Amino acid sequence: PQGSEKAKTFVHTFLKRSMPRMKDEDIQDILTRKAVVLKHYPPKKTKQKRRKTKGFTAKERRELRLFEIEPEQQKYAIFLPLHELWKQYIRDLCHGLKPDAQPHMIQSKLLKADFHGAIVTVTKSKCPSYVGITGIILQEFKHVFKIITKEDKLKVVPKLNNVFSLELDGFISYIYGSKFLLRASERSAKKFKLKGSIDL
C-alpha cells in the first residue's frame, strides 16, 4: 500500500492533469476537503418519437372502394342471417325485450345501438319517393343509411328529413334521422337529451 504522501502526490497530479485550467491554490483547496467527487455525465439519449399509425384518407378509401358492395353481393337473402344476429344482439342489449320493459329504457338503449342488420322502414319523409322503402341496413354513415330491399336493390337513404321505424318482438321504435346525424361509433359515446317534441 502506498504511503499518505505518495497518495497525496498522486491525487494532486491526477487533478492537475484532469483540470489543467485550475490554479494550484484551487486544487489545494479541493484537497483540504479530503473528498474528491468525480462526476460522470452520461451522453443524453435522444428520444425517438413514436410514429402514429396512419389510416387511409377518405380519398384513398374511395379509390380502394373499401365500402362498396359488389353487385353480385347485393342480395336480400344473403343478409337475412345478419338480421337474425342483430335481433339477438338487441334482445341481449335490452335484457330480453319483455312486455313489462319500460319504453324509455329501451329507447335509450336503441339510441346507442348498432343498426347494421336491422330491418327499417321509411315512414315519413319530406321527399315522398323515400316513403315505404323497407330493407336491411347494410351500412351506416354519418348522413346516410345504405339499405338492401327485398327486391335486391341497394338504396342510399339520407338521414336528414326522414323518419325510420323498426319493429322487434312487437316493440316498434322510431328513428328521427335529423337528430341522428352521427357515425355509429360516435353515437355509442354520445349523451342524448330527452326532448318533448321532434319534427322533421
Automatic annotation (TrEMBL):
Any single Pfam family the record assigns to this protein: RNase_P-MRP_p29
GO cellular component, one term: ribonuclease MRP complex
InterPro entries cross-referenced by the UniProt entry: RNase_P/MRP_Rpp29-subunit, RNase_P/MRP_Rpp29_sf, Rof/RNase_P-like, Rpp29/RNP1
Molecular function as annotated in GO: ribonuclease P RNA binding
SUPFAM superfamilies: Rof/RNase P subunit-like (SSF101744)
Protein family membership: Belongs to the eukaryotic/archaeal RNase P protein component 1 family.
UniProt subcellular location: Nucleus, Nucleolus
Alphabetically ordered keywords of this record: Nucleus, Phosphoprotein, tRNA processing
Protein name per its UniProtKB record: Ribonuclease P protein subunit p29
Subunit: Component of nuclear RNase P and RNase MRP ribonucleoproteins. RNase P consists of a catalytic RNA moiety and 10 different protein chains; POP1, POP4, POP5, POP7, RPP14, RPP21, RPP25, RPP30, RPP38 and RPP40. Within the RNase P complex, POP1, POP7 and RPP25 form the 'finger' subcomplex, POP5, RPP14, RPP40 and homodimeric RPP30 form the 'palm' subcomplex, and RPP21, POP4 and RPP38 form the 'wrist' subcomplex. All subunits of the RNase P complex interact with the catalytic RNA. Several subunits of RNase P are also part of the RNase MRP complex.
Function: Component of ribonuclease P, a ribonucleoprotein complex that generates mature tRNA molecules by cleaving their 5'-ends.
Gene3D superfamilies assigned: Ribonuclease P/MRP, subunit p29 (2.30.30.210)
GO biological-process terms attached to the record: rRNA processing; tRNA 5'-leader removal
Native source species: Catharus fuscescens (Veery)
